Amino acid sequence: MKKILVTGAMGQIGSELVENLRENYGSSNVVGSDLWKKEEMEGPFEIVDVTDGQAIHDAAKKHNVDTIMHLAALLSAKAESAPQLAWDLNMGGLINALEAARELDLQFFTPSSIGAFGPTTPKRNTPQETIMRPTTMYGVNKVAGELLCDYYYFRYGLDTRGVRYPGLISCVTPPGGGTTDYAVEIYHEAMKYKKYTSYIAENTYMDMMYMPDALNAIIKLMEADPDKLVNRNAYNISAISAAPEDFGNAIRKHIPEFELNYNVDPVRQQIAESWPDNIDSSAAKAEWGFEAAYDIDKMTEDMLAKLRSI
Ligand code: VAH
Question: Rounded to whole angstroms, how far apart are CA atoms 90 and 95?
Fold first, then answer.
């Protein structure tokens, strides 16, 4: 992996991934792409709508990349509000990116999610191989996406790789339309108002991860020995299993007067309850050495320090 095209480069993961990759591989070797870009954003960038397969192909060819990291997608809550649009973007965009990678013989990364699991999946210590009957359009997209990436590996020999991300917490670009967004909002509002009203109920556990761990996982997986990859497109990875009150308790170690209230959103609560409480990451650790560096306290300290400096 030396020259990379990132789709969804203006999103929560993409915006920090492009910066991280540029630090590791050189700015001129990482091409961002999205429907729009921030004026001040530097480095190679292409305006690409991933529902236009030719646009992805042309951007990859123009910059002579050897890898596509496909991140453009609608997240879970937004996908539930527009399921047909989500199918077109999440699945149409994915097969377009896979086709570009096949035609140009590129390495390929796209994330799956804990959203690929459903209410009949074992909720605790969720195995790498298990029942996957998601009840959301996002989950259907993620399971189908994992299988499509497996197909492109088995049928065409494409070097596809992916992880099942938990909820990701970051302070650079807020997520849009996710179920786990509360775990990002809580930090911003703790800083501004010393209080937050959670749309997810207390005692609702979900897997979470700090963005630095999420980005390191991509690079570690993409640089791993392909002969060691068994689960290649769908590695369970997680760092933290937490409910809203756990974030509140961690924040209060820095902002003692922080107040956490609840006003549950039934749609996102139902999505959250269909996902595991905590997943087993042992296959990722065994096959490519996945390790998370941030627990909830270390993440909280870093998040609040970064938000204070903005
Ligand atoms: C979402 N942040 O909430 C995403 C993620 C596991 C959750 O896929 O939809």
Answer: 9
CA of 62 to the centre of ligand 1 (A): 32
Closest residue by Cα to atom 4, ligand 1, is 178
Question: CATH fold of 168-207+239-279+293-309, please?
Answer: UDP-galactose 4-epimerase; domain 1 (3.90.25)
- For ligand 1, residues with CB inside 6 Å are 75-76, 113-115, 138, 165-168, 175, 178-180
Please give the distance, rounded to the nearest whole angstrom, from the Cα atom of residue 115 to the centre of ligand 1. Answer: 7
Q: To the nearest 10°, report the CA torsion of 232, 150, 167, 307.
A: 70
Which CATH entry fits the domain spanning 4-165+231-236: 3.40.50.10160, 3.40.30.10, 3.40.50.720, 2.60.120.10?
Answer: 3.40.50.720
pLDDT in tens, 255-288: 999 999 999 999 999 999 999 999 999 999 999 9
